[in-house]
Amino acid sequence: MGQNGNTDQACPVSDAIIAGKDQFGDDFQQLGNRGDIRLRSQDATPLSELAHNRKHNAALPIHTLPAELYLQVIHLDTLCILDSGGYGKGYYGRLIRLSGVCSYWSRVIRDAPSLWAMLNSSVPPKIVEMAFQRSSYHPLDIVFHQAVSRKPPNFQSFMDGISSHRDRCRSIDIQVASRRIRHTIAALGGPAANLEELSLCDTEAMLCDRQFNLFGGRAPLLNSLTLNGVSIRWDSEVLCNLTVLDLSYIHFPSTDAILRALSRSPQLQKLRIHTCSTGSMTSSSSPSVQLLKLVQLEVAFCERAETQNFLDHLICGVKDAA
Fold first, then answer.
1. pLDDT value for 7
2. Which parts of 38-110 are beta strand (E)?
3. CA 228/CA 47 separation, integer angstroms
4. Helical H segments across 171-318, by residue range
């Protein structure tokens, strides 16, 4: 073998520039290695190179993973956005960028309704419409947060836009300023058939004592209710059969009123009452309320005496007063 052949055997494979003509006669250059050069025909074109790369990529083990596992990877990738409440442009922007990785990823993301079932009032209407189509019949999670720094969207207009999908709503998370609470609650209208979770937050929360009538007095089958700076009628059917109840910055008409409300949810598992007050405490002779399914309890009225008065009339397996 000649000297050049010995050199080829002795030298390690290293980067090189592949030069040639494309199918239009134009010059092109591509980074490769000497091993590639020896294996490629001199008449290779960009199209043949593309076909070769696709064949190579298709053979990678990662492309043999089932779609279900891909969805778990995508979910973990977007988890930080979801944890920060980012169901808006950040979330959908990430999905769209991931869709550009390859055609397989694009198909998996496009055909996964659960990835498109979170709708935020901050996203453009075109993305909302895309999400409606791709989420198919999957339950929807609605997020409506009014930003202080810009002109806030109108909740009524937002709800009108999703009215045809109303019965698909699984959860609704609303944060608005005090002056818009009344109009927002009115825009909720009647109960959505499959609504499980509702969160209403007044972003300028004080101790609210004005009682709003949620859903016109007709109750959805809620499992979880969060009221932050928003008070409702405490005899409302909305408070029946809850498993999670979170109340903060509310002035109750009396401790008896909130105890009676709790008695209508004997299956309650998590209860949080934070920075609330009461118009009158209950007497020592008043009946206690049993919540035997309760596993998590946090109670902190504005006054310690109010906290103790409430706990004295609550029977459960856990007592953790803040």
1. 44
2. none
3. 60
4. 181-188, 255-262, 304-311
Q: Give me the pLDDT at residue 126, please.
A: 84
Distance of CA 222 to CAs 81, 132, 171, 179, 270, Å?
26, 23, 9, 26, 14
314: DSSP letter: E
Which positions ≥6 away from 125 have C-beta within 8 Å? 161
Residue 273 vs residues 161, 178, 183, 256: alpha-carbon distances, Å: 34, 20, 25, 15
**pLDDT averaged per 10 residues in sequence order, the chain, 322 residues:** 46 44 43 46 68 72 77 79 59 83 83 87 82 89 72 69 82 89 84 88 88 79 94 90 96 95 94 96 90 94 96 83 49
Burial class (CB in 10 A: 0-12, 13-18, 19+), 181: buried
CA distance 60 to 55: 9
Query: Contact, 269 vs 294, CB < 8 A?
Result: yes
Helix or strand holding residue 118 (H, E): strand 118-120
Cα 319 from Cα 322, distance rounded (Å): 10
H helix intervals, 162-300: 181-188, 255-262
C-alpha pair distances (Å), 295 with each of 28, 308, 318, 322: 68, 19, 6, 15
- Are the C-beta atoms of residues 159 and 187 closer than 8 Å to each other? yes
Report if pTM > 0.90: no
